[in-house]
Amino acid sequence: MSTQPSDLWQTHAIRFLECAFRSDRHERLQQADGRGQKSRDCGDTVEIFVMLKGETLQNIAYTLNGCINTNACVNALIDLAEGQPMSRALQITPRQVADYLQTLPDHEFHCAELAVETFRLALTDARRVRQAPWKKAYR
Asked: Which of 11, 37, 100, 134 has its CA 20 to 30 A from that of 18?
């Protein structure tokens, strides 16, 4: 599905558009408890930072070099994960991200996969840092 810029507003759900254009979470969290970075063959690169309070995801931020679909997917993932315990957040799937957005084009599903894979790397890193907290200071 090739959409012209003027078609974007008619072909997508409000939730997709809100996530696609949201930018307030674009930042590097300097004291992040965990971080993950991943790139795809399409050229998109995402880095996700997580802050925990106990086992709960308190704050999630990201940097992105990618398309509007990837931006929408990362923001959707954060909407689904923030405030959740790590164990529940680890269960979020790319299908849930796409369903949350309502109108993610099928051929852009890899953007949801990139978001979830990067997020899981950040959570894995957070667990690793908890086992050896001194490593956090050397990032």
From this structure: 37
Domain total of the chain = 1
Which CATH number belongs to the domain containing residue 69 in this structure?
Answer: 3.90.1010.10
Q: Is-contact 67 44, C-beta < 8 A?
A: yes
Look at residue 4 and tell me if it is in a domain.
no
**pTM of the predicted model, to two decimals?**
0.89
Residues 80-117: tens digit of each pLDDT:
999 999 999 999 999 999 999 999 999 999 999 999 99
